[in-house]
Design a protein that fits this description.
It holds the Pfam family GST_C_2. The chain has 203 residues and is an alpha+beta fold. It contains eight helices and four strands, in the order E-H-E-E-E-H-H-H-H-H-H-H. It has a four-stranded mixed β-sheet. Strand 3 and strand 4 form a beta hairpin. Helix 1 packs parallel to helix 2, helix 3 packs antiparallel against helix 4 and helix 3 runs parallel beside helix 6. The longest helix is centred in the middle third of the chain and has 28 residues. The protein is globular. The two termini are 28 Å apart. 36% of the residues are buried.
Length: 203
């Protein structure tokens, strides 16, 4: 299998953490394909028409994307158990969706400052995206701590990757303010080897 990736992509990081946790890292060839909406990677054009990473090319089926599809596939392939059965499954999926929502909003803020010309940047738009992140962090802190403290699952991994990306690109906005429980959980969780080994490089 070939994984099209970028080392700074938080969506890719979810997949990489799962590969570490399920012992499948050696089964995947990594192909660096840095891409942005303004400069899509040419190597992705024939693989993912959306030209986004991650994309997982398989020898026995169509290329898979996006990160949630890839993570579900790899978890099933490796019998990882990161998507539990029963009622807990829906909590895990909801938590993963919330984490990806944080990433979506954080990435829009990143694009606003890094890709849009300075004279066309819209502060109110960026602030509205950040407000989504604040609300999600507050909800995690108030409603989801018991789940986050439970057995390892994909929801926890997704949240950790989302918070890690917010630190990576938007640390000055301080998501930890008022979210002491979430901050304490993240400090401990990000020390896992799978998280430590997939931290994005500066840049």
């Amino acid at each position: 299998m070939k994984l099209y990736y970028s080392p700074t992509s938080p969506y890719v990081r979810k997949v990489m953490v799962l590969l570490h946790e399920t012992g499948q890292l050696g089964d995947v060839e990594l192909f660096n394909a840095p891409t942005t909406p303004l400069n899509p990677a040419e190597g992705l054009l024939g693989t993912n028409p959306l030209t986004k990473v991650p994309a997982l090319e398989r020898p026995d089926g169509p290329t898979l994307f996006d990160s949630r599809v890839i993570c579900a596939f790899l978890d099933a392939r490796g019998n990882g158990g990161l998507y539990p059965e029963g009622a807990a499954k829906w909590e895990t999926l909801t938590l993963e969706a919330m984490a990806d929502g944080i990433l979506d909003a954080a990435l829009l803020v990143t694009y606003e400052s890094r890709l849009r010309p300075e004279d066309k940047q819209w502060d109110s738009w960026a602030d509205a995206q950040w407000a989504k992140i604040e609300r999600a962090c507050a909800a995690l802190n108030q409603r989801w701590m018991a789940h986050l403290a439970g057995p390892l699952d994909m929801g926890q991994i997704a949240v950790a990757c989302a918070l890690g990306y917010v630190d990576f690109r938007h640390d000055a906005r301080n998501w930890r303010h008022g979210n002491d429980g979430l901050a304490a959980w993240f400090k401990e969780f990000e020390s896992r080897p799978s998280l430590a080994e997939t931290r994005p490089p500066e840049g």
